[in-house]
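In this supplementary section we document a worked example of the pipeline. Step one takes a protein sequence of length 487 as its only input; no multiple sequence alignment statistics are reported here. Step two produces a three-dimensional model, which step three serialises into structure tokens for compact storage. The input and output of this example are shown verbatim.
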Amino acid sequence: MQTSNDTAAALLPLVGGPANVTSVAHCVTRLRLGLADRSLVDAQALRALPGVLGVVDDDTYQIVLGPGVVGEVAARVEALLAPRSAAEELASLGTELRERRRQRNATPVKNALRRIANVFVPLIPALIGCGVLAGLGGLLVNAGWLPGLTPALAAVSSGFMALMAVFVGYQTAKEFGGTPVLGGAVAAVVVYPGVAKVTAFGVHLAPGQGGVLGALAAALLGTYVERWCRGRLPGALDVLLTPAVTVLVAGMVTLYGLMYAAGAVSSAIGTAADWLLTTTGAFAGLVLGGLFLPLVMLGLHQALIPIHTTLIEQQGYTVLLPVLAMAGAGQVGAALAVYVRLRHDTSLRTTIRSALPAGLLGVGEPLIYGVSLPLGRPFLTACTGGAAGGAFVGFFAMLGDRVGATAIGPSGWALFPLLAGNRSPALTAAIYAGGLLTGYGVGFLATYVILRPGASDLGPVGAARPSRGTMEGASDSAPRKDHVERS
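The serialised model returned by step three reads:
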């Protein structure tokens, strides 16, 4: 069986060797590599490597490995890159700076959303862990089991949530070039109990008012104040005055402006989400479920991360994630239809068999980039399935049965342990399962109808599907169908 060490050692030569790697990072499913020269990448061999589910050529070169595995592989890659000479380090720094300037296929909006997402992505493991524990605690309370343990379990699962603003501040400063601990210090003002004694705009502030949005704004302001001070104070004074001025200025502005404004925005987000699903639930679910895959392709889904986090902080769960997760169900249904309809295409069917388990667990990249997107129209029918599943969940929200998730990151069947709502756990799970089955079914039927046996060469508008060479040159974000892990 391929280990993380094996995967890391095998993929490094395929991306041009250690000297070609300028940076290493990862999110929930993808290893993100900064590369000095992308022409050195052997994309075909990389996609065929056991353990690799797909690749995406974006602002960084992204290798899809799946949740859990990606962290281990990233750590091993960093270890393999460690022994470098000073000359190599300088060369890597220069190429990294050039890579940042290049910003391939980037727009200011996408860059801003990507940086905001980078603030929250490192927090996802803690959100998942605490969300699972919170769900377990809720089940124990409802069942009346282990009453002596449930208070301790609640404390363990709620501690991170109570101080999440501090972590957001820390990550914000780190992402935007400030001192992380100063970002955390400024954001801590938001959750400090003593703010209840402060009056702003004629009302007393409440601890936690503004939530993660207030913490994000506070730390961002603190970063700019710190950078302004660094460039104007001599070394001796810089050590003493820069931290003090940063915390003072950003802290006071947070108390007398940002907390109030961010609190209003946070409340509006919660109110809007509740109104959207309780009033226009079926239609809202239709739109959200149908458009989520295109949003992912454009990178605009990152704007939803702060919204999810705000809802979790306010209500204990986000009602949007289960609706958006239906897009993955439509994707699975479409892939199954392709598998059944195009029986002669052995390579494509092999790709689907290897990628389908990950799709069922909410990792959609292998099916998107390996199946539906290269084929064209199955991507649209997958969106149709997602719209149907979203409408199903939204319809029950209109009836007063809300389904939410206590954490972000997982979807598909992996989201079941994180489900929460205003009804019993069994009913909440049943509604979510019904949405998944609806997405599977509609995605399957819509794709089955538009495909003809022997028509696997049809593209988005019925023209011949591009040859392998054409696809490779036209879009690095749409890997060829036969380059997905063979599990």
